[in-house]
Write a structure and sequence with these properties.
The complex is a heterodimer of chains A (158) and B (172).
Chain A: H1 12-17, H2 23-35, H3 37-55, H4 65-70, H5 89-115, H6 126-137, H7 148-151
Helix pairs in contact in A: 2-3
Chain B: H1 9-28, H2 31-48, H3 57-77, H4 98-103, H5 107-116, H6 120-130, H7 136-143, H8 147-168
Helix pairs in contact in B: 1-2, 1-3, 2-3, 3-7, 5-8, 6-8, 7-8
Classes of the chains: A mainly alpha (158), B mainly alpha (172).
Chain lengths: 158, 172
């Protein structure tokens, strides 16, 4: 064996396994594999680890996730500004609560208008109101929460 | 589909959402962050479709979801209380929910926990290669690093993943 021989770097094994090694690199890896049990062991470990990942089932999104994004009545309008951090799960829960409260307040406000015709003859469609208002002013993906300004003057519970 | 062959935002979500969510989940390690990552990625997709050139859509999506994920990682790094350790080889704490996932039955969860235990600089190449099936060149483009760096990180990432799986008992 030549004293000048330089062992190839071990990271070539991953490239070899992935078919990303050049022909020259492939030849060097195969020569090393032929003489090194350690390299053969590492290659087998890499292969089995990669196989585990490849075989792991696709993670499906929670039920309702795609509907909430794609349903035309509730699909979020495109924000024109950067949205909140992806890390803010607690704030998402808060925003859901706010959205629910705002939605309830808005519904109450609409009910007042509809159920008391003597005060107003306007009978807006809820879906249209939500949609139009959200499209005009929303800066987040949650159109319902954008109804908050509409609900404010109602002052429920007072 | 628009007349110039560019899909609509809804078509991307419908036809490639499963791919997008799976990659997001493998990157973040939990459903809460994966949902947020997918939503934010789709917002960028919607904006990006105006200039999108038809090609490898999943490659483009993988790049977007990676960028959004890494933006978040960088944002976390700027927070003093969550600064990275000085030794980059030190394993970061697993993502939120990873411990709970470990208690669940099934090797898939153990794999996810092991993945989540990798520092993101090693986790991302592994996910992009072994989950998203991207080429080294694609991954290098997504990360803005040379292909040689991808090779090195991917190899080290797999070796670390192996160790984590052995330590968890998922592999012998």
């Amino acid at each position: 064996m030549s004293a000048e021989r330089i062992d190839p770097p071990e990271e070539l094994l991953s490239a070899y396994l992935d078919g990303e090694a050049t022909p020259d690199e492939r030849a060097r890896v195969e020569a090393q594999l032929a003489t090194s049990e350690e390299w053969r062991d590492v290659l087998e470990e890499l292969r089995s680890t990669r196989a585990l990942l490849l075989a792991s089932p696709v993670r499906e999104a929670p039920t309702g996730f795609w509907d909430s994004l794609l349903h035309p009545d509730i699909a979020p309008p495109l924000p024109t500004e950067p949205v909140r951090s992806i890390e803010s799960a607690p704030s998402r829960r808060r925003s859901r609560a706010i959205a629910w409260i705002a939605g309830a307040a808005a519904a109450a406000a609409i009910a007042v208008v509809v159920l008391v015709p003597g005060q107003s003859r306007v009978k807006p469609a809820v879906a249209t109101l939500v949609s139009r208002h959200a499209v005009r002013s929303s800066v987040t993906e949650d159109p319902v929460s954008q109804l908050a300004p509409v609900s404010k003057p109602v002052q429920l519970g007072r | 589909m628009t007349t110039d062959g560019v899909p609509t935002w809804e078509e991307v979500a419908r036809d490639h959402g499963r791919f997008l969510y799976n990659v997001a989940y493998r990157l973040t390690g939990n459903d809460d962050d994966a949902r947020d990552l997918v939503q934010e990625s789709l917002l960028r997709v919607r904006r990006g479709l105006e200039t999108y050139q038809p090609g490898s859509l999943e490659g483009w999506l993988a790049r977007i979801v990676t960028n959004v994920f890494l933006d978040e990682v960088r944002r976390k790094r700027r927070r003093p209380e969550q600064a990275l350790p000085e030794n980059p080889d030190r394993v970061l704490p697993a993502a939120a929910g990873a411990d709970e996932m470990a208690a669940a039955a099934g090797l898939s969860d153990e794999i996810q926990v092991a993945l989540a235990s990798l520092p993101e600089e090693f986790r991302v190449p592994v996910v992009l290669r072994d989950v998203a099936d991207r080429t080294y060149e694609d991954i290098a483009g997504s990360l803005g690093v040379p292909v040689g760096t991808v090779r090195s990180r991917l190899h080290r990432g797999r070796r670390m993943l192996r160790i984590a799986l052995v330590e968890s008992g998922a592999l012998e």
